[in-house]
Amino acid sequence: MATTSAQAVRALVEPVVARSGLVVEDVTITPAGRRRVLRVTVDLPETEVGGVAMDTVARAAQDVSAALDEGDVMGGTPYVLEVSSPGADRPLTQRRHWMRARGRLVHVVTRSGEGLEARLIAVDDEGIVVAEGRRLPWAEVVRGRVEVEFGRLNVDDAPDQDMGDDEAGDGAPGPVAGSDIGDDAGREG
Question: Least crowded by CB within 10 Å, which of 24, 43, 65, 112?
Answer without folding.
Answer: 112
